[in-house]
Amino acid sequence: MARCQNGKLCRFGVLVGDAPEERRKPSEQLRKIDEKYVYNYFIGLMQDKMSAAQKTLTGMEILQGWCDKYLQVFPSGEYQQNINAIKTNATKYLEQNEQGNAILNEYQDLSLEQAAEKINSAEKQVFDVRYLASSGILDEAISYFSKEYEYIAAPCALVDDESYIPSNDVVVLVAPDMLSESGIQELNVIPSGTCQMQNSSGFAKEYPKYAIIDDEWIAQVQADTQAVENIKAQMQEAKNQIDQLLQNQPQ
């Protein structure tokens, strides 16, 4: 009868990586072991490890390795299909996690979640862009712009459902790149506080400031957000499949 050591059956140490190197190759004796008993024991080990793992990712890595060890002992056993299914879903979980991290790592100063919040607050507005005020690094600029350009502009009002008239108000538009032209333009903007500038009389005055958000950047953030949501769904599906497989023990 097999004895326990550190909570593991010594007899099946080969399945959990505790056996000496010289005993890790499948032997005729191991092949004759009742696979049903080993399978039930093995599934119990995986259930315990998944419930004890502080991170699902760690549990998936362990399951993936244990499935390989099981298949070394029973390469064409009765429960090979179930073990392969567990391994396939664990591998899927890990691969999807890697893809998700690759997307998230593209966002450095601003996380993907913060970027999505920014673009959700963006609004289409029409401005009469007049002239470039200055360029360079702005201390209070929103963080995802590294180089910015300030433009003096005036908000426009729609008249006759087809034309715009500039107002007498003055605003400062902050762009990540130099604008290609002046004049009336429809832009995606986010309110970004105020900017103190000298007015025509030579006195300092606070003017509303808006950050211009590029259409391509909005599209990229939206695509990445959707991709990450899809990845999360696939990871959850893989975990659900494993949970179900671990419950299906032979009687």
Describe this structure in words.
The protein is of the alpha+beta class and 251 residues long. The protein is built from 7 helices and 8 strands. The chain has helices at residues 13-16, 28-31, 35-52, 56-73, 80-104, 112-120, 215-247; strands at 4-5, 8-9, 123-136, 148-159, 163-166, 171-175, 183-198, 204-212. The protein has a 5-stranded mixed beta barrel. Strands 1-2 form a two-stranded antiparallel sheet. The chain is rod-shaped. 18% of the residues are buried.
Q: In a few lines, what is going on in this structure?
A:
This protein is of the alpha+beta class and 251 residues long.
Tally of DSSP β-strands: 8
Question: Number of helix segments?
Answer: 7
- Gyration radius, rounded: 31 Å
> What's the helix-strand series?
EEHHHHHHEEEEEEH
> Helix content range of the residues, please?
40-55%
Strand order of the largest sheet: 3-4-6-8-7
- The average pLDDT is 81
Distance between the termini: 22 Å
Explain the layout of strands and helices.
Blueprint: E1 4-5, E2 8-9, H1 13-16, H2 28-31, H3 35-52, H4 56-73, H5 80-104, H6 112-120, E3 123-136, E4 148-159, E5 163-166, E6 171-175, E7 183-198, E8 204-212, H7 215-247
Parallel strand pairs: 6-8
Antiparallel strand pairs: 1-2, 3-4, 3-7, 4-5, 4-6, 7-8
Helix pairs in contact: 3-4, 4-5, 5-7, 6-7
For this entry, give a set of tags.
25% strand; 251 residues; disordered N terminus; five-stranded mixed β-barrel; single chain; 7 helices; rod-shaped; alpha+beta; two-stranded antiparallel ribbon; 44% helix
